[in-house]
Amino acid sequence: MRAIYKNISADGTATILSKYGENGVQGENIMQIRIANHEDTHDNIIKLFLDDGTNQYVIVETVIPPRVTLVLDDGINYDGRVYDLKLTTDDDGGSTALTIIIK
After folding, report:
1. Distance between CA atoms of 91 and 103, rounded to whole angstroms?
2. Do the Cβ atoms of 96 and 9 come closer than 8 Å?
3. Which of 42, 44, 46, 74 is the most buried (most CB within 10 A)?
4. 48: which DSSP letter?
């Protein structure tokens, strides 16, 4: 499986993985999601969720401190034909600087 790499540099909601997959990656075969806050001084408030176009199902909602990486590696699989994987960010008054790696 190929990894997906995304950089997020603005607050708001971004689609990380669209329905039906990207680069051969679908929700059914995700082994790990890493979200790194490479901002030097500001926390980043994130919400990672599944979206079917009507409902949102939150996987994690947390604060990532500066220079910290959140690793999700248990129970990530989902039906990629039904859901987009999305991320909402709020930089807590600083600048957003996230890198997301999906394997």
Report:
1. 25
2. yes
3. 44
4. E
| b/e map 40-60, b = 16+ CB within 10 Å | eebbbbbbbbbbeeeeeeebe
Query: 48 near 35, Cβ under 8 Å?
Result: yes
- Reported as a single tens digit per residue, the pLDDT across 66-80 is 999 999 998 788 888
Distance CA 29, CA 43 (A): 30
Residue 91 pLDDT more than 60? yes
pTM of the model: 0.88
3-state secondary structure of 29: helix
